Every structure is written in structure tokens, then in C-alpha cells.
Amino acid sequence: MPDIVTSIEFIADLPLYKNEKPYQVLVSAAEYDSSVTTNNLKFEKRDSVLIRDVREQKEPFDLNEVGFTILNHQTSVSEIKTNEEVAEYRSETQTYLKKLLDVECVYTFDVKLRDNGADLGRVINLRDDTVPDRPAKGAHVDVSRAAGPRIIGHHLPRELMAKYAKRGYRFRIMNTWRSLLPILEDMPLAYCDYRTVDKNDLIACDRVIPTRVGENYYLRYNPAQQWYWLEHMTPEEPVLFVSYDSAPGDQARFCPHVPFPNPRASPTACKRRSVETRSIIISKED
Questions:
Q1: What Cα–Cα distance (Å) separates residue 92 from each residue in 6, 69, 95, 103?
Q2: Predicted confidence (pLDDT) per residue in 115-174, tens digit
Q3: pTM of the model
Q4: Domain residue ranges in the chain
Q5: 11 with 218: CB under 8 angstroms?
Q6: Rg (CA), the chain
Q7: Residue 43 near residue 219 (C-beta atoms within 8 A)
């Protein structure tokens, strides 16, 4: 059966976090100092976590209910290695999501390449979108509720902010995640059904970069969580998931996700290569 049992990393439930907020300082090579502590994050690996295959589910996954959905889209950008190709992929994503979601505006502000086989050292390059990062650690949500408005205010161009930052508009932040391999086996991504997430298991974490302080959530383990993946994911099957939603209501407001070791991966499988985007989605309120 395509459903698998494997391990997932969650933030540890430490007494430390009752008095000290989790934090992570992201620095580039020029700022890195090995004598300075850059985070207080501790993760714990939970074994025997069931991850169900989306392909085996009878009903399609509704973005507004579970927080993620599988798309059918072939990118026209054959390689994403140069700044020009990154910009082309960003523009393509904006155009595609605007049509798909039938919204007023989409502004894609981030394109992130990841490569599990690259020799990247201990720091990341914060100034070059063409340099890949490794798969992220720990089950997490990219944007906290408090950070959503700050991210939108920082990234949305002034003319769009003047046009849409008023009563009557809904702002969301959504991610796309796409394999850059014909078949992805190494370190695929798992997605947690929003309806199964206890809000008390979301732990806010400061993400500090040289220009500003952001905030995301890490997820504590809870056996009630239901996880899903897409076995043998192809580049034509990107995943769209929610990271933030300004609108009130019971709809999915975020989607915890995490890379995990695939026990079915071939010993000769290529190391994961993927591309993800983050976009501000603006629509009229219902």
C-alpha cells in the first residue's frame, strides 16, 4: 500500500520554551560567527507516524478545508538556475495562480530552491535566489498569524498596498512546492490536514535575518494529526498550500508541512531538488 509509516521531526516540548521563545538567526557567510549561538531549537524525532498517500483518497483535497491541494500544471521554465529563470518562474506562478484562484491580484515575492545533495556548508545565502538551501527541518508553518500582516506590508509594492489595503479585501499567503526531478523519492514533503491540528501545538518562533524579524510556527507532536504525501511526485503535480489568511471563519488558515525520510526510496534515487514559492493572494471578501 502507498501509505507509509516513517519518522517526522517535531519541536521538542521543552520547559525552556515556557520562559524563552524559540528563535533562529539566519545569517549569510559574511555574518556567520561560530562562537555565537544562532538558535535554541530542539527537535525530537517521532517514529511510526502514518502518512497517507493522496493518490489513494477517494475525494479530492479541498484547499479551504484541509489547507492544501494537488495541482495539474506544467511549467514552461525548463531550468531554474539563473536570476532570469527565477524571475520567469516567479512571473509564471503569479499568472497561473491568479487564473486558478480567480482573484484580484497575486504577487509572488519569494522563490526558494532546495537541493538535498548540495554541499552548502553551515550557512545559507540570503542574497542570491539561485543558490539552493537544504530541505527545512521540523514540522512547521511558514507564517504565524502575527507575522502575516508584517510580511504583506514588507513585500507588497506600494501601489498595490494603496489599492488593496482597505476594507473589503482578503489577504492570504500561499505556497507552491514543485519537484525538479522526473520522479521525487528522496525527502518528499508531508502535509497535515488543518482540521486535525490542535492550535495549542503551534509554537511561535522568531526568525531573525539582518533586515528584520519574522515569525513562523513549529508543530508539537500530537497523535490526532493526520499527514499526507504524494508518492512518486512529478514536476507536473505541484502542491498549493495555505500559510496565512486574514479572513475570519472556519476555513483552513495554514498547512503544517515537513520533509521526511521515505522508506520506499530506491538506494539509487536522486537527492531531492525542488522549488517553492510564496505569494500574496488578494481577493474581495465574501
A1: 35, 19, 5, 16
A2: 998 665 545 556 678 888 889 999 999 999 999 999 999 999 999 999 999 899 999 999
A3: 0.94
A4: 4-284
A5: yes
A6: 18
A7: no
